[in-house]
Amino acid sequence: MKRLILLAAGLLTAGALSAQNYIIVNSEKIFKSIDAYNSAIEELDLLAKQYQSQVDDKFEEVETLYNNYQYQKASLSSSARQARENAILDKEKEAQEYQESLFGQEGSLMKKRIEKIAPIQKEVFAQIEAYAKEVGADLVLDSSNNPTLLYNNPSVERTQQIIDRLKK
Q1: Is 23 left (phi over 0), alpha (psi -120 to 50) or beta?
Q2: Whole-angstrom distance, CA of residue 66 vs CA of residue 7
Q3: What three-state secondary structure class fits 56?
Q4: Over the range 74-94, which residues count as b (16 or more CB within 10 Å of their CB) and which as e?
Q5: Strand, coil or helix: what is 5?
Q6: Which of 3, 68, 107, 151 is most buried, with most CB under 10 Å away?
C-alpha cells in the first residue's frame, strides 16, 4: 500500500514537474564552496567546544557536590542532609540553565550562528533565485540530503553555475 501511494505521489510530482521548467541545485555543495562559510563553521565549532567545556565543568561541580554528600550523608543531621540536597539540586538547575543559555534556541551559540551564517545564506539564496529567474525556472529543487530525490538528470543540475555566480 505504501509503495502504491509513493508511486502515485511520484507520478503526480513527475507530471507536475514536466509541465514546469525546473532546476536542481545542491545547496550543501554550494555552501562548502564558500570560504567565508567554511571559516564561520570552523569558528562556530571551536566556540561550541569551548562552551561544552564550560558546561562540563559546571556539571562536574554538581557531581563533586553529590559525591561528597554521599560520602558524608550518614554523619549529617536530617536538616543538614536536606540543605545539602537542596544545594545540589540548585547547582544542577543552575548548570542546566547555563547549558540552555549557551546551546538553546535563544542561546549564545545560536545567536552567533545566525550572525555568521545568515548573511551567507541570504546571498546564496538570492543568487539561486536570480539564476532561476534568469533561466526561467518555475521551481528549484535542492538535492542535498534529500532522501526522496531518487534521480536527477545532470542537464537540470545547476549547482556549478550558482557557485560560479557567487565567486564573481
Answers
A1: beta
A2: 57
A3: helix
A4: eeeeeeeeeebeeebeebbee
A5: helix
A6: 107
Q: What Rg do the C-alpha atoms of the chain give, in angstroms? A: 26
Averaged pLDDT for residues 20-42: 92
Q: Which residue has the cell 550543501?
A: 28
CA distances from 87 to 47, 62, 75, 80, 90 (A): 30, 9, 17, 10, 5
- CB atoms closer than 10 angstroms to residue 37: 19
Q: What percent of the chain has pLDDT over 70?
A: 86
Q: Kindly state the cell numbers that stand for 114.
A: 545566525
Please state, in angstroms and rounded to a whole number, the distance separating the CA atoms of residues 153 and 133.
20
Rounded to whole angstroms, the Cα distance separating 167 from 17 reads 30
Burial of 53 (0-12, 13-18, 19+ CB in 10 A): exposed
Q: How far apart are CA 63 and CA 92, in angstroms?
A: 9
- In the numeric block, which cell numbers belong to residue 55? 558546561
Q: Which three cell numbers stand for residue 163?
A: 557557485
Model pLDDT, residue 153: 73
Q: How many residues does the chain have?
A: 168
Q: Distance (Å, rounded) from C-alpha 160 to C-alpha 168? A: 13
